[in-house]
Specification:
The structure is a homodimer of 485-residue chains.
Chain A (H helix, E strand, L loop, with lengths): L18 H11 L4 E2 L2 H8 L13 E2 L4 H14 L3 E4 L18 E4 L6 E5 L4 E5 L4 H9 L3 E2 L12 H6 L7 H4 L6 E7 L5 E4 L12 H5 L8 E8 L1 E2 L3 E9 L2 H15 L3 E8 H10 L13 E9 L3 H17 L5 E4 L3 H13 L10 E2 L3 E2 L5 H15 L4 E7 L4 E7 L6 H5 L2 H14 L15 H7 L2 H14 L12
Parallel strand pairs in A: 2-4, 3-4
Antiparallel strand pairs in A: 1-2, 5-6, 6-10, 7-11, 8-9, 8-10, 12-14, 12-15, 13-14, 13-18, 16-19, 17-19, 18-19
Helix pairs in contact in A: 1-3, 8-10, 12-14
């Protein structure tokens, strides 16, 4: 396991947990839901990419809001740091305890009830520990769509989705987790419960507390439940794979499709040739959608609330015009659901397909949509300057201005030596992002991974305001310390 | 002019402005933009409905962000309360100084530049003092739509729209002012400038500061500019007027239209027969859209990004099915733009049409959409219990769950006596709202009008968190004191 340069951690030895305190916490949830010992806590202190590893004397798995409230009261009383954790799929270490051994993990998975599906208001009220895919299934059975769609949806949880303001492939038409949330229930550091589980589309009664907790990565309170928006299931959906010459053509095609299809354009994913080549080489069963290896490719999805025929006609008219105007060089529209799934599987495989190619330095950036071609050009130069021969692996949610701009090591370089360039490469790419007034974390959040960079590069006034909020909400600094701010 | 029971005001005599301080403020903007004297300040201390009247020794009309910054620095140094004001169209007194004579009005109208229209990113960057209608015109000339649409758009300003998170008739498809804003520039009470003018659809770098300032009604800082989303102009638009038997039928018709048209359903306004009768009686040129006086009527709008024919076909298919299923009793689709405008004018005239009918007690409520029929039934009983014979004037943005539930006085009652029931009537109607987990201010905000009620009835934990934010952002309490919180 590789553990990259971690941000400085505040080791809070003064708060180290003694057995008596562990027993008091355990008594709240019951012994069988209070995990101690290296083996039992291991799944909660390591994560899939092997980047962040923590230490904890105690993982609590509460089964009710009342238990969480009691845990937080005790944590405040004893100044015990609490690290809320959902499905443990976060990519920036926000869900990991530090290595002090003084932080308690609060795992939300047992708080997994869907409290209500309201078909007339088109809302679902779900607890934080509901797994995203389970929510999809539950609302699908009543002919509704909850559009948040992530690679990790088989294990990520609603509370984590909201705390990290998750994005994914459907943001273009439906917005990110923030936009899909109407109301929340939060346990504050004091144990008090803020019940703001409203189903309202309009509510102007004071400051927007909901949007403070959403995206705060568990540093202000513990989201325990939320009211989420549902949509009618599209009656038709068409998936297309397009070959193009350049990012400029992709941008023009995006504008054409947006103009013609409006909110019926539900995905627009840009993918360079290299990540596709990696997937075709390394992922079993991967099939090239196009006959030729176009330097840039786009995965598009059109959804229609009207009919399957309507989705088909829309996709065809946009793509025909794209071909006529020579924005698109080649087009394949999936002829059946199996082919559509294969397109999406190829897209989802792009991350894993990098692993056999050695070390990968990752970015999750966004810029104004119109700046995507310029970013791609400038970032490539920046990468080459840091590490000649490094291989850019560029793909992402172009319609949102969001690219997962990853960089695989040069073929013959030592992996460890390459990964030592992580900070320098991040800085070089992020300098381009900052120059274009973009974001160094479009959808993954700050966690512990990007905290130092955020603090060092964000406008000091913004950081100051965030710190004031943190101090106002969590004066004892027990909520996920060392993360975000 | 009637001035209703105002919330208690904190008279801050200790801060009363002397001439030397007035001169220092005036020197920042130049004498010609520093208004003093009763006559000069009168337009800034009274408002159209005549509900709130304030007193100020000084109205400042700065012409740049630098001047606003200097004003706020001086205000912090001297603890001078500042009341930011946009187009002075707010309905809850948020833009009015109190009657202490110690509050300075900061009128934003000269900060009225459209800094940039970015056609590729579909954004406009506008200063706070840009009048909404001027923004509409500017983006219309480049074939774009900024969908925020309000009755006051000829005089309201972008800064006020954002500070009050304005709603209006297009929220159903496009969201309210909050959802239309990508980035903001804010001058803090200290005079520091937070530049967050980003064009990003995704940005997860710390707490959501933008959404704190949006909707804060100028109590946390002064919004000076914003990046706003633009949309392609619809290629087709159809307006329909529908007669129905009941709110239940309106709800079913709304669900039918949402299901068929999705985001192409861009307005769904419910109107009871009485407000229409008032408008036909009192508003010159008002014409009844339908042949009969249906007890409930709906104004619907369908917009298509594809073509005029598409919008027409969509409207016809939804409304035909509505008639077949007997949800709609009668339907007229506007046959030309003039008729469509006449429909909308009738809708916009509903407020003014109440005036000749005597005193009106107003509400701006929202409930979950599915609860609209229940709200209408229960609220009518509550009104009758407070004042037998009072005439409910119910209309609003039903698609958003938002009704302007006004109550005109009984025909023969003395107006002053009726208006004395304002607090009792508000309480009775708002009790129904609270029972249905709704909002007592869906789109107008809290201002000074609803502050006491918010503080008395909102969950104490929420109020406590809001107060902590206020103290953290504005420790000297100079930003619009006496408003919201």
């Amino acid at each position: 396991m590789t553990v990259y340069a971690a941000p400085p951690r505040r080791v809070r030895e003064e708060y180290e947990l003694d057995q008596a305190l562990i027993d008091r916490f355990a008594a709240i949830v019951g012994d069988s839901h209070a995990l101690t010992g290296l083996e039992a806590v291991e799944p909660f202190v390591t994560e899939q990419r092997g980047r962040f590893a923590g230490v904890t004397p105690l993982v609590l798995r509460p089964g009710s809001v009342a238990e969480i409230s009691a845990i937080m009261r005790l944590a405040t009383e004893t100044r015990t740091p609490i690290v809320p954790q959902g499905g443990n799929t976060g990519l920036v270490g926000g869900q990991m305890p530090d290595r002090s051994g003084a932080q308690v993990v609060l795992s939300m998975g047992r708080l997994n009830q869907i409290r209500e599906i309201d078909l007339l208001s088109n809302t679902v009220t779900a607890e934080a520990g509901v797994i995203l895919e389970n929510l999809h299934v539950a609302v699908d059975t009543v002919d509704r769509l909850y559009p948040l769609s992530l690679g990790s949806q088989g294990s990520c949880e609603i509370g984590g989705n909201l705390s990290s303001n998750a994005g994914g492939v459907n943001v273009l038409a439906y917005g990110n987790a923030r936009e899909l949330c109407l109301g929340i229930e939060v346990v504050l550091p004091t144990g008090e419960v803020l019940d703001d589980l409203r189903k309202l589309k309009k509510d102007n009664t004071g400051y927007d507390l909901k949007n403070l907790f959403v995206g705060a990565e568990g540093t202000l309170g513990v989201i325990t439940a939320a009211v989420l928006k549902l949509y009618p299931k599209p009656k038709g959906r068409e998936t297309a794979w397009v070959g193009l010459k350049s990012p400029e053509n992709a941008l023009a095609l995006f504008h054409l499709a947006s103009d013609r299809a409006g909110p019926s354009l539900t995905a627009f994913e840009l993918i360079a040739e290299r990540p596709i080549a990696f997937a075709l080489k390394h992922m079993p069963g991967a099939i090239a959608p196009l006959g030729a290896a176009w330097p840039w490719q786009v995965l598009m999805e059109f959804s229609s609330g009207r009919s399957a025929e309507d989705a088909r006609a829309l996709a065809e008219s946009v793509l025909e015009e794209g071909l006529e105007r020579e924005l698109a060089g080649d087009v394949v529209i999936a002829s059946n659901i199996a082919q559509s799934r294969a397109f999406w599987r190829l897209r989802e495989d792009l991350s894993d397909a990098q692993k056999p190619e050695g070390g990968s330095i990752k970015h999750d950036i966004s810029v104004p949509v119109a700046m995507i071609p310029i970013f791609i050009e400038r970032a490539a130069q920046a990468v080459e300057a840091v590490c000649p021969g490094a291989r850019v692996v560029c793909f992402g949610h172009m319609g949102d201005g969001n690219l997962h701009y990853n960089v695989s090591q040069p073929v013959s370089m030592d992996k460890t030596r390459y990964l030592e360039m992580y900070p320098a490469m991040n800085k070089a790419v992020h300098d381009v992002v900052r120059d274009l007034n973009g974001s160094i974390s479009a959808e993954h959040g700050i966690g512990q991974m990007k905290r130092d960079e955020l603090l060092a590069t964000a406008p000091p006034i913004g950081i100051d305001l965030m710190r004031r909020i943190k101090a106002a909400f969590d004066p004892a600094c027990i909520m996920n310390p060392g993360k975000v701010i």
